[in-house]
Amino acid sequence: MPPIETFYEVMRKQGITRRSFMKYCSLTASALGLGPSFVPQIAHAMETKPRTPVVWVSGLECTCCSESFIRGAHPLAKDVVLSMISLDYNHTLMAAAGHHAEAALEETLEKYKGNYILAVEGNPPLNEDGMFCIIGGRPFLDQLKRAAEGAKAVIAWGACASYGCVQAAKPNPTRATPIHEVITDKPIIRVPGCPPIAEVMTGVITYMLTFDRLPELDRQGRPAMFYGQRIHDKCYRRAHFDAGQFVESWDDENARKGYCLYKMGCKGPTTYNACSTIGWNDGTSFPIQSGHGCIGCSEDGFWDQGSFYNRVTDLTQFGVEANADQIGLAATGVVGAGVAIHAAISALKAAQNRAALREEA
Amino acid sequence: MSIPQPGPFQPAPSRKATVTDLPLGGARGARRLTAVYVYEVPVRLWHWINAFAIVVLCITGYLIASPLPTMQIGEAAHQFVMGYVRFTHFAAAMILIVGFAARAYWALVGNHHARQIFTLPLFNFQWWKEVWHEIRWYAFLERQPRKYAGHNPLAQLAMFTFITLGVLFMIVTGLALYGEGEGALSWIGRGFGWVIPLAGGSQMVHSLHHLGMWSIVIFTLVHIYVAVREDIMSRQSIISTMISGQRTFKDDRPD
Ligand code: HEM
Ligand code: SF4
Fold first, then answer.
1. Which partner from A165, A356, B161, B224 sits 20 to 30 angstroms from B154, CA to CA?
2. Residues of B (216-255) whose Cβ lies below 8 Å from A
3. Nearest-by-Cβ selection for B203 from A228, A296, A343
4. Total of domains in chain B
5. Do A325 and B66 touch (CB under 8 A)?
6. Every domain range in chain A assigned CATH 4.10.480.10
7. What CATH code is carried by the domain that includes residue B154?
8. Is residue B197 part of a domain?
9. How far is B122 from chain A (nearest CA, A)?
């Protein structure tokens, strides 16, 4: 088997000039928050290291992760990262189809065994032996497990692979299951979001390819550099939050002034993501900037926590959908009424006792 | 911990006895004592500081979840309404936390009444019987309550659940939320961040913290009602005891 080519060789083959390559290295360094001294280090790694193939599989999903990915803000970064990925197998982008495609995947898995990174978009349904998601005539679950066997590490793209997302929303009829519950023996890096931000996706892949290790992860297995803070911590409307200046209803004067969307149910205070720093579509905007609250798409179970327009969770455990305030107020009312009745009976009883005592005397 | 059965006879101590080794709450050994020193200074001080902190925390907590109407005092840079509400919440939270820690310490070194709301004699049948008796008293099925130097068993159960566990729950969830603002690498973030994935996300922690408030509100409602009612209808002092520390009894009848 010929030695695996380096990243640099792959890029040159793709027609990327040395100058562009160096630009890419500095871009990567800054995207990852590294100083200029890292640029030669990244360049050196890319020139000498055999490239790490990335195998990309898709289960129950909507392809928004792929769509986001190919819209990476910087075309250069995107092209380079795309050239690193083994595109022999990616439902959205591959040229092959049918048995050819499946054969190509199998070949990649064999050839790079133990060396490739598995990127998973979507998740497997477990009910009915996984029949709700069939790929090449077999349940996606089988393909996922097969692909995970020889993987060095696994990337869980999006809310689907990380937490389950909409297909796992209650009552989850197909039992769509986040991948960490079926792949238990590999390091999994979660990149949640619906979809994740393109620059976050390319950043994560680039980091893993250049440094040959996982980026620093937080408690939930997300790269800390992108998911270390809440939207709310870096939101440009935060000054209005602290001032207590809120949009009170859609299209009111405060909405025009760009006040904080907290009362409109903004989930920024409970959502970990980089939207308020990196932005979307080449940094053009992000939901809050366009006047709508954050819906918390990168959080666990975001479909099951109630309305997008109310930041207080719906608790369905109580039969009807109600939030903490409704339940609390109702319970307080019931207990308060109970106390009042109890007090009245107590007074009556006391009076009775007194009367009885007087009679005895 | 064992609950002594009421003995056949106990020598009547002098009025205003400062007997500190009375049997625990469940026991009725208090009979014929007319005054017992029950709650030491740290316990009483904590009770009122804790009550004050909880009131402030409930009001400001409610206002965090449902903020005041938008005000136009000045430019956002010169206005800090929500900021002050949150600051007050966090300041009261720190008082609550330090108070709770001090109170837990006092449970170790104070008299045995100070331990009452930190431990439940769950395996003591007699104690459960007295809980039941107390429930019957509140259901108007008993003509008169029993006498207790410390908390009666039902009160002990309620305080353990809603205050000892309840406040601890608020502290843990509150610090988890506080750690989010401080950053995952702060010591609070490191110490309490585990709560967030455990609960199923930040929003869920907010909801649980919020529900915790309502449980404490309901406890407070009942607590105040019952304290006043017992002060009037039971055979012992209640409200003044948490001020002076002395439990006085209204009659000398046994039990
Ligand atoms: C009796 C005790 C307490 C009560 C009744 C209480 C009540 C509340 C309530 C109702 C909320 C709003 C939750 C929501 O978003 O819906 C809240 C938020 C919060 N509480 Fe507490 N709390 C208590 C103790 C604490 C403690 C001990 C801390 C510890 C520092 C704390 C820290 C916080 C924080 C950080 C928030 C979130 C603030 C924000 O989102 O801006 N709380 N509290
Ligand atoms: S708009 Fe949302 S994220 Fe921004 S400050 Fe207000 S609540 Fe926080």
1. A356
2. 217-218, 221-222, 225, 229, 232-233
3. A296
4. 1
5. yes
6. 229-361
7. 1.20.950.20
8. yes
9. 26
Mutation target vs B (from A342, A352, A353; most B CBs, 10 A cutoff): A342
A303 touches chain B (CB under 8 A): no
A208 CB near ligand 2 (under 6 Å):
no
In the stretch 171-200 of chain B, residues with CB closer than 8 A to chain A read: 180-181, 183-184, 193-194, 196-197, 200
CA angle A201, A203, A209 (to 5 degrees): 105
Q: Amino acid identity of A142?
A: D
Alpha helices in A112-197 (DSSP H): 140-149, 158-163
Q: Does residue A269's CB lie within 6 angstroms of at least one atom of ligand 2?
A: yes
Q: What is the three-class DSSP state of B238?
A: coil
Q: How confident is the model at residue B68 (pLDDT cuts 50, 70, 90)?
A: very high
The angle that helices A75-84 and A18-31 make with each other, rounded to 10 degrees, is 100
Contact status, residue A248 vs residue A254, Cβ threshold 8 Å: yes
* Confidence tier at B1 by pLDDT (50, 70, 90): very low
Which pTM was predicted?
0.88
**Where in chain A are all domains bearing CATH 3.40.50.700?**
7-227
Q: Which domain holds residue B156?
A: 41-66+78-234
Residue closest to A244 by CA, chosen among B206, B57, B76: B76
- Cis ω for the linkage preceding A196 (within 30 of 0): no
Ligand nearest to the CA of B76: 2
CA angle A348, A352, A356 (to 5 degrees): 170
Q: Where are the alpha helices (DSSP H) in B33-144?
A: 41-65, 81-109, 125-138
Residue A98 · residue A33 · CB < 8 Å: no
The class (CATH top level) of A229-361 is few secondary structures
Task: Tell me whether residue B90 is in a domain.
Answer: yes
Long-range Cβ pairs for the range A324-332 (8 Å, 24+): A324/B207, A324/B210, A324/B211, A324/B214, A325/B65, A325/B66, A325/B210, A325/B214, A327/B211, A327/B214, A328/B210, A328/B211, A328/B213, A328/B214, A328/B217, A328/B218, A329/B214, A331/B214, A331/B218, A332/B214, A332/B217, A332/B218, A332/B221
Task: State percent of chain A over pLDDT 70.
Answer: 92
Q: Are B26 and B127 in contact (CB under 8 A)?
A: yes
Q: Fold for domain A7-227? A: Rossmann fold (3.40.50)
Res B21: pLDDT? 40
Secondary structure letter of residue A32 according to DSSP: T
Q: Which residue of B has its CA nearest to A260?
A: B70
Nearest to B221 among A233, A263, A335 (CB): A335
Atom number of ligand 2 nearest to Cα A238: 5
